[in-house]
Amino acid sequence: MLRNPEARLQVVVALLVVALALILVKLVQLQVLDRGEYQDVVEDTIYRTYALPEPPRGRVLDRNGDLLIGNVPTYDVGAQLTAIQPTDVPTIATSLAPILGMEIPELMSLLNSEYPWVYLARGVSVETAHAITEVVTAHNRRAQNSQTERKWDWLSLQETWRRYYAEGALAAHVLGFVNEEGVGYGVEAAQQRFLRPQSVQNQGVVNVLSEPLSEELASTEVRTYPGADLVLTIDRTIQAFVEGELDKALAEFGAASGTILVMDPRTGAILASASRPTYRPYDYMGYGGDARDLFADPALRDYEPGSIFKPLVVAAAVDSGRVTADWSYYDTGVVEYGGVFIRNWDRKGYGQQNLQGILDYSLNTGVATLTTRVMGPEVFYAYIRRFGFGQRTGIGLVGESPGVVHLPSDLGWEDGFLATNAFGQGISVTPLQLATAATALANHGTMMAPYIVAERHYPDGRRSVTAPRALGSVLRPETADYVAELMANTVSNRLTMAQVPGYRIAGKTGTAQIPVSGGYERDDVITSFLGFGPLPDPQLLILVKLDRPQVPMHLRWGTQTAAPVFQRVASRLFVLLGIPPTEGWAGP
Fold this sequence. Notes:
Elements (H helix, E strand, L loop, with lengths): L4 H29 L1 H12 E5 L8 E2 L5 E14 L8 H12 L3 H8 L5 E8 L1 H19 L10 E11 L6 H4 L1 E2 L5 E2 H5 L1 H4 L5 E5 L8 H6 L9 E4 L3 H18 L3 E7 L6 E7 L15 H4 L14 H10 L8 E4 L2 E4 L2 E4 L7 E4 H6 L3 H23 L30 H4 L10 H12 L3 E3 L4 E5 L5 E3 L4 E4 L3 H17 L12 E11 L2 E15 L6 E8 L14 H15 L12
Parallel strand pairs: 2-9
Antiparallel strand pairs: 1-8, 2-3, 3-4, 3-5, 6-7, 9-17, 10-11, 10-22, 12-15, 13-14, 16-19, 17-18, 20-21, 21-22
Helix pairs in contact: 3-4, 3-5, 10-18, 12-14, 12-17
């Protein structure tokens, strides 16, 4: 033991020098030798890649600029669980559970999760986010002056967007939806790459929750862009009226479902597309996993059309040069071809008949004679393909069926198809395909491609406009005009329920059997009416389709069900669109 005070002091000083030297060595190691390593750790902690707040999806507008789909802000509520003390969990749950609409044990379970970070709630309203902010701010104010309470710096509110359907379920099948995986229906899914906002990541200074600091966001030159706005061809007013008329028709005739299409045959623009049953696209999650049939657009699904198909067969026969206006045949009420016996709908024979008579009396034997004994398979199916059957229209919507056309070159071909296809049996088409093919009759031989997106407005100010697109002159103008006149005469002479006073209308009814395994349903049918006008230059084409109307059997025809629906829709739309009556036409 050192008794000399000076000696002891020297020892203490020596120890201090050694300690200081060790500290200096460590500082040199940390600040010089290992500086790069620790600098990387610091930068990894506060300087990270982060996603900029995502802008909203593009809006969807009708052709007049009225909003159909917009966006409302919502918030995702997140929690950094590693920054929460377990003793604070009950207080947090008690304070926030009522605001989030959760039970306290449910929220506590989330806060006690083994994960470092969790969502407490997603897509909460602006009001809920404000309420959460007020509670957190009040708590933090108390904690600032408290020795025991800790600030709630672990909570984050991230702004997101929710789709807002301005007209509720209007045009549900047209508009559709997209889920979080980007899968969906309607325009929302088909135009996803345009509607979707541009997501951008950046690198910068973040807080403990990996969120960019406000000054970081203010200084960055990286910008995000919202999705492009779409202007549709759909007219909100026409769509609402047509949906109302479809609802009335289903109630009046007891039909299980139905579709009404309204098109401008001069351009192919779809003005309205209504189908029932429908759904609420803003609530698609509430329908469960078996609702795909409900979400799919019936206007794009195929069915056997029946007699509504006959004007196209007549047009093919005339345009091919195989028949002329003075052609006729003797109708015995039955035609046999390929072992299949074709009979008229009423089982009657009509004697000597021409092309007008075929459409006036909707003679199955007449069109079957045209396909089997006049045109033959090569000519007939060439026109079937020319009209676009058996292939998608190219409208660009999700789930469009190409339909089913059996050709002589197919393995499953039967000779009888040539006869039955003539009156819309054994062939399936979509309502949109039928309407598109009919534009050739209404538009002097030129078939127009259907479209539903009129314009795209990009966030940088650019605009792209969809120009009407002709699919070709599928008929000679004189053929189209001649068949349109035949159809107009049929409406004037036979179809009083489809007549619109003051307007010359061309049209044709259809009553189609419904195929089932081994044959056709005995009683249920699909009734339809396809019409356009006013002649000589039609501006509207309307297709009405009613599935399984439940009326007395003698009224279960397109004439008694679909035709009056067409009349009501056409009468109103001619006035609504300011289409003048046919000059000099007083009606039948």
